[in-house]
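Need Gliding motility-associated ABC transporter substrate-binding protein GldG's 3D structure for a figure. Predict it.
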Amino acid sequence: MKKNKTLIYILVVLVGLVLVNAISSKLYGRYDLTKDKRYTLSDATNTIIDNIDSPLIIDVFLEGEFPSEFRLLQTETKQIIEEFQLKTNNIKVNYINPIEDESTREQIIDELTRSGLEPYINTDNSTGKVTQEIIFPWAFASYGDQTVKIPLLKKSITQELSEQINNSVQGLEYAFADAFNKLVNSKSKTIAVLKGNGELADLNLADFLQTTQSYYKIAPFTLDSVATNPQGTLDKLKQYDLIVVAKPTQAFSEEEKLVLDQYTMRGGKSLWLTESVIMDEDSLRNATNSSVSIMRDLNLNDFFFKYGVRVNPSLVKDLFSAPIMLAIGEGSQAQLQPIQWQYAPLASSNQKHPITKNLELVRYDFASPMDTLKNDVNKTILLQSSPKSRLEGVPTGISLNDVTKSPDESLYNSGPQNLAVLLEGEFTSVYDQRVLPFKVKNFKSKSSPTKMVVISDGDVIKNDVRQRRPLELGVDYRGFLYGNKEFLLNTVNYLLDDTGLINIRAKEISVAYLDEDKTKEESSTWQLLNIALPLALLAVFGLAFNFFRKKKYT
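Structure prediction for Gliding motility-associated ABC transporter substrate-binding protein GldG:
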């Protein structure tokens, strides 16, 4: 009888195990118990992944033996990819160490660099001997016949490596989701780059246009036809989702303003890079190395005033600024040297907004300050100069010969100045209760919900040109990369994003690091503790076991 009960018990356990395994295989689930929900994908990411209907191959080059900071980035990269793979079987991944094979190392480094994957050179002197490691914090994503590169490391010229890694970890989901979106979803939004009012030439917009073309359809749009067919121009402009106005230099007519106003009233988005002062660095490259700044009247004051922002006719000088290259010395002894240039503010970003979160400094050149005005439109300051700023009115003589003089820091007390503003909401027409310059079909005095960004310097979007070839936007003569391109791309994505993808940038992930100095100081103590304490506990356990055993059996 007892034997039968035992067999029944064993049989019940076996059947129970089979049932538990069968049920668990059907009801598999994962639970994100982290405080910052770092392993929970956003709805926008899930939507993009759901649209992947054929194999998407990811090649990750962040493989090998790395410093602790890069090991963290490596681990987080693998974990986020695992989350993607749990959503679909169509994502395949290859982890590649590009420099593992010594015989092909130089060739592969050269090929990856020519593909646009700039390596990170890590210098380590912690052991007293200087060593350098080449790391490729990049990935490729391939889908069909398309391939895009994915930066895994957000480089910064102002942050320590640990901060760069922290920002990179926070941006991993966005980096991959953004790449997937470019591969999987077709371009549906359209951008019009306005022409006809002395805007920047295409050569000076080349890098911005090339970068943005990965996401949207772009075409030039001239306002010249407004003079002869304003209604027809408006009807054509309404077909675009966003207009970009890059550093206009000629005044807008009332008819052109009405077309732009009614475009906004119908929900059109716009990105304005405009200036209220005539002055740029090229104006100073003359025999006297000097020029005079004067006011630029684009006939847009009432336009922006009605929407809730004002670009003031003055210049921002900032002690926290980018350098300018000048020849110091005379004749054959002259040498090019970087000299701090107060007219080139380095704007800091609003870390609470997805456009500017974890953004590198943005370089301006002869920027004007902006005020926000009270109305029903929501306003968000995106970029500001440093607290060590001052305002300079116009007209004012500006000379490169003064650049070597030490600035009087006591005069730089105007506080941070607004340099980029986001406007969101329902706009009131500039021509509300005014005589219209031409008759508009279905004139609207109140807009649909829409967005607009105003930047008080057209040079923010301007890439340098060397030997008739455009350089990368935001890169200076030293090879430093400012945040201009990322800022503008984020801005365009935010203005046009109806998937919520850009909001992934606002995700907060807390990354904890060991204190390196404290680790070095207390390393011997913790090593001894980790070795001695387990042995001591084992000895105590052994003595206690023998003591109680003898006590019980003697």
